[in-house]
Amino acid sequence: MAAKSYLDLKSEVWDTGRCSGCGACVAVCPADALFFDEGEMITSPRSNGYCKQATDSVSCGACYAVCPRIGDQPSETLGNYLEIVSAKAVFDVPRKQSGGAVTAILANALDEGLIDAVVTVTEDHWTLRPSSVVITKSEVLVQQAGSRYSWWVPLLAALKYAIVEKKFRKIAVVGVPCAVQAVDHIRKSDNDLLIPYAKAIRLVVGLFCTETFDYTALIQGKLKAHYKLEPHEIRKLDVKGKLEILKQDGTITIVPLSELETCIRKGCHFCTDLTAVQSDLSAGAIGSPAGSTTLIVRNETGKGMVDSAVQHHKLTTGAGIDLAAIEKLASSKIKKNSGR
To answer: Are residues 42 and 112 in the same domain?
Structure first.
């Protein structure tokens, strides 16, 4: 049976509103034919109309093979793991999210040569506008740390630059569950076009996520218009069953998620995965004491990265995880989004 093309992806995912916007299809398209427009509430990529398979009958199917909305969605709250610990960076991480543990682990991995690049999300600290980025130096990674994963960005589109153009071969990807699912598809695929991507990705760090927000809809349509908040007034955003906004003056504004439905990407309503169960290492603020990060160490790759950061005095770990809190929110997401 012939591999499916972007036309199948369009009809099954894009046109049905299921697209997560992860950017994986953009990254792996060998013809560079897929792209995201700029603007408010972009629901899916577009094609320039050319497809090696659909146009020239050349076997491809890469875009369809990587899509996280193809196949069954995860139904587990915690997934498989070796251990779950509370952790925090030993050194100062400005703008850190919870304990800064992910930054500490990745900074150590860069310093020790365990990875050569990190595909992650950055933001303009004045406007908070997010973008995907490839970082190769630990000091830059620490400088860029923050809570930018509340925003939608087609993160995995940057894989093409990292792997095809820059030839990095020991890459860490840090992303929300849909991006993690796409990378899992890449790693498990037998599609020849995806093998170079799979070989180049050494570590996948998944971030706890309930949903992501469209930048323009949230900043201009809600926070600025209704809460009189300017982007430069916001120090950190955190989603814990509600949107918690820490302002630069130290005060906190709470926005119920029920008020933000129009700001949430439509594709998020099809996701049932809170804890990124297909990652090597999952991280989030839920379940740990204030100022610490919950780390779900899922396999030996994740454990090795954590252990190395501890051994080089960049990370400290401990107990005291509230598993019930994580499972409760994870179960709520599964119940809410299953069957869509």
So the answer is: no
